[in-house]
Amino acid sequence: MLKKGRLHRSTRIKPALTTENKHMRVEHVLSYIDDAIHNFEPMENVIHIDEKWFNQDTNTRTYMFLEGEPSPQRDRKSKNFIPKTMFLAAVARPRYDFHRKCRWSGKIGIWALTEDSDATPFSFKKTMPSPIFRHLTPTFWPLGWKEAGQFGSSSSPRILPI
C-alpha cells in the first residue's frame, strides 16, 4: 500500500532554532576548548544524566485494520488521566576499574522514578483503593575520588565528586 501511494509516512518535527539558540550552542561548544593549547578538553570525567517522561498511551494513535477486525477500546476521562512514568538515565565513558581489575563499560543505568501503589480511601464510600503513581526522589551519589561534570538536558551544569 505504501508503494501504490495509499499510505504515507511523515517525518518527525524538526527543532525551530532561533539565532539566540544557535549562538548559545556555539558558546557551549567553545567552553570546552582549552585556551592554553587551543584543543578540546578530553571530557574524560563527564557523566551525562537525562530524564524523560513516558506516557503509557498517547492521545492520538493510528491503527490499521483489515476488514472485519474490531478496533481496540481506548477511553479516558481526559488527557490528564494518562499514566506517566519518569526515567532517569546516566552514562559515562568506558574506563578501567583498578579496584575490581576489570574494564567498565560506562553504562551506569536507567531507573524508573515513579512507583505504582494503591491509594488509601479517604471516605467510607470508597470500597476499593484506587491505583496511583507516587513520584520517588532517589539519592544517587557515585563513589570515587575524581570530579565529574554532570550535564542534564534541562539543568545547568554542576560539579559532583565521584
Automatic annotation (TrEMBL):
One of its GO terms (molecular function) is nucleic acid binding. It comes from Phytophthora nicotianae P10297. This is Uncharacterized protein.
